[in-house]
User: What shape does this take?
Amino acid sequence: MSLPELPWREPLRMDRIGAGVERSLTADAATRERIRVHLDLASLESLSAELQVRPYGPGWRLTGRLNAELAQTCGITLEPLPAKLDETFTVDLVEAGKAPEPDRIEVEVSLEDDAPDIVEDGAIDLAAYVVEQLGLALDPFPRKPGAEFVPPEGPAEPSPFAVLTRLKPRDDAKG
Assistant: This one.
């Protein structure tokens, strides 16, 4: 099984980072449409990011700020829910084969202590990180304020006792 094609790509060769690199990315209309489909959004009016990549420890640190105007679909009313996002993020990166070896005796897992992302093929895909962070910033259960799920009226299920009363012989049937 192959992975789906990424909706936006902006590779940065690791040999071009030096002491640090700053980039500004702005998605054009065609790119925003691919991202909209990829993230199942009602609309994506704008998406831009300011990014910095600097040497850090055994690898690099990617810091960024993304701004987006979008609309998600309410899970109850199916109406578009407009949103403006202004998110900052940080991702540590290390070249494949140069990641620090984990402690083989005891491994602690913490949500705050992420292992660095592995960079392969000699390039960091800046746009892929922007799309990933946009996806992480979305509301996983978008709901219009005040919207409540009301189950549809349907036939009432008979109680198990009602079924038993039908099996019991009636007094008027004796005779």
